[in-house]
Amino acid sequence: MTPPKGRASRERRVIVLAGEDQNDCDIMAAFLRAHRPDLVAAAKLVRINDPVRLRKKSGADLAASVRTLVGKARAKALQQRGELAGFVVHEDLDGYTDGRYAQIRKTVAAELSRQSHGVPTALALAAWESEGWLLLFPDAFPYVRPRWKVPDRLRDKDTGRIKDAKEELKRGLGRPVFRESDGPSVAREALAHSLIPSPRGTNRSYADFVEDLTDWP
Known about the structure:
Mean pLDDT is 94; it is low at 1-9. It contains ten helices and four strands. By secondary structure, it is of the alpha/beta class. It has a four-stranded parallel beta sheet with strand order 2-1-3-4, sandwiched between helices.
């Protein structure tokens, strides 16, 4: 028997990811799968292609940009014939987890929450960048390239205080040189080997993101 029109739409849950590029969204997807497997098991993860540029905006400019992103997330869910069940937004901070970080995150997260109208959101304002989060899982790197070893100077640190983590990885891992496109593989290996529940070191921006996900219903 064919279900009534619209039933599939109400039953399918869609979680939308927006970020600076595909690599960052893939990294966030791995963290989402690690921290909320209950939600991901019943949802489809999809991405919108618009690059996120929120951290330098405020007031009407920020409101307009967030309105556009949320609107495109809702449209993407409809395109998938589903209901928007969550929205993950990534942007590299290009800075430390200091007072400036706290203010930017508070402002952007509040605007996302205000305009989502009940849809849970998670802000990944990564300090310095996504690679700073990957440094929390140094044991994942050799699973991607057997010769890679994160140097001791980058292990068990506050990675939100490591400037240009991407460049540090390029210099510190050895050959082959780390590339941005390796990031999703590192995150997936961290997920596959159950490393994500036990990060090595700290990063306030990562902890804030995880807290957002934990608060999702």
